[in-house]
Every structure is written in structure tokens, then in C-alpha cells.
Amino acid sequence: MKIQSCTILGVDFFSESFSALIDKAQRGGLVLAPSGPGLASDLIKCEFYRKALSKADLILPDSGLMCLWQNLFTNNKVIRISGLRFLETFLNEFEFFESSFWVMPDSEQSIKNISWIKKAYGYEVKQNQVYIAPIYSKVGHLTDAALLSKLQELDPSTVFIQLGGGVQERLGLFLKENLKVKSTILCTGAALAFLSREQAPIPKWVDKYYLGWLMRCIFNPKVFLPRYLKAFRLVYLLIKYGKKSPRLN
User: Fold this and answer.
1) Which of 36, 185, 197, 236 gives 63 a disulfide partner, CB atoms 3.0 to 4.6 angstroms apart?
2) What is the DSSP string of 38-86?
3) Are 53 and 6 in contact (CB under 8 A)?
């Protein structure tokens, strides 16, 4: 079934209703929510990041900066769908926690995220449903034989990848291409950490008005200020390329 999309920088972003997005995500496949900094940097530096976007089944227009620019200065309009709102809604409708698998960035976040899941949904994620990711390379082809082996053994219906942008997309691609059964693979970055308050809390009004980046900068300026300043390169790419895919550097 063909999915209605909006093409920006050569990437086909989902542009149907939110309910249609949830329905399609539940059917399986790779779901990505690329960040503004990721699009500004990895899209022009890493061919495997770009390949992940081209092979994804659903790509959320999560970047507030990108959506704001498109809607103010172009005729190629897009309705923003944040990874945070998507994950929260998906979990509220999720009925298969027993068949879920969670890829976490570190032990501390894992403990807090799992505790929040139990409190919010009454399900205690088991130890064999969690994988603490190693430190992956920032660019290039990404593989993880240990993770793949666990997933092939457990055969979960849904894999929740809670890693940073630039990494999660390439890991999601690796799993999509190597899992024998078509699981739903959700790459929503820090969305779960926002919900569990492990990272800066993002109230609904903040997310609605594209201000999540500001809350993260206030919460941890040393980490996020440099990151989001670099994201303004995205505006340059949008001006120069529009719908077309930018050149790899």
C-alpha cells in the first residue's frame, strides 16, 4: 500500500493522519524520527544514514526547525509529528509488552525507563527483554551480532531503540535487513527518556510549539547547545536543495 508522503531533502516524510501512522507502525517495519541535527549533519556525511532513511517504512517529520521552515517559506507544507507524541500514543495503545524488546543507551537510563514503564503500564520488563547498547561508531556501516542473536532467539513483535540520532537509524537498518521476521522497529531517540523524566521533561505545550530543543538546552546546556547550534546548518540545506537530496561530503 502506497504511503502519502512529503519529500524534503530527498527524504519521504509521512504526511497522512496520526491515526493512520499508528495503524501502519503496528503492522511492522522500520519507523524513524530523524532529528534536525541528524539531518543537518549525518545526511551529508554518512551514506549508511542516508540509506537507512531510504529503506525505512515510515519516517516522521519530527524536526521542528525543518517543519517551521517548510511551512513558513515554501509551498511544500508538512505537518509535524514528534517522536515523543508518537511513542506516547503508540505505548498507550500497545498490547504486547510481553513480546517487546528494548535497546537502551546505558544502565542508568535503562533502570529509570523500565521503572517508568512498570509505573505507567503495569508491566515489568524482564531482564532478557533489555539490551544495553555498546558505543557504536558515529559513521559507517553498523552491525551488532550479539543484539541480532538475541532478537532472533526471542522473536519480539516490537523493538524499541532508545539511542541517539545518527546511530539509531543505522542500527534499525541493520536489524531490518537481517531479522527473518518483520518486527516493528521503532527509532524514537530520547522520547522514552522524556517520558520517564530521565531527560528534560517536555510538556505537551512545549512539544506542540516546537520548543523541545529549548528545554533540552536549559536542562543540559553543555551537551545540547553546541548540538542545536550546528542544527541551523539544516536551514542552509533546505534553502539550497529543497526537495532534492543533498550531496554527500
Assistant:
1) 36
2) HHHHHHHH-HHHHHHHHH-SEE----HHHHHHHHHH-S-------HHHH
3) no
Instruction: Tell me what the mean pLDDT of segment 59-68 comes to.
Output: 91
Q: Which of 185, 195, 156, 187 is nearest to 169 (CA)?
A: 187
Concatenate the DSSP letters of all residues of 182-232 into one string: --EEEE-TTHHHHHTTSS----HHHHHTT-HHHHHHHH-HHHHHHHHHHTT
**Whole-prediction pTM value?**
0.89
Grid cell for residue 126:
524482564
Asked if pLDDT for residue 32 goes beyond 80, the answer is yes
Task: Give the span between the Cα atoms of 224 and 118, in whole angstroms.
Answer: 29
Q: Domain residue spans in the chain?
A: 12-135+143-241
Position 179 pLDDT exceeds 70: yes
* Distance (Å, whole) CA 19 – CA 24: 9
Q: If you ran DSSP here, which 8-state letter would residue 29 be given?
A: E
**What would the pLDDT profile of 99-140 be if each residue is shown by its tens digit?**
999 999 999 999 999 999 999 999 999 999 999 999 999 889
Q: How far apart are CA 84 and CA 88, in angstroms?
A: 6
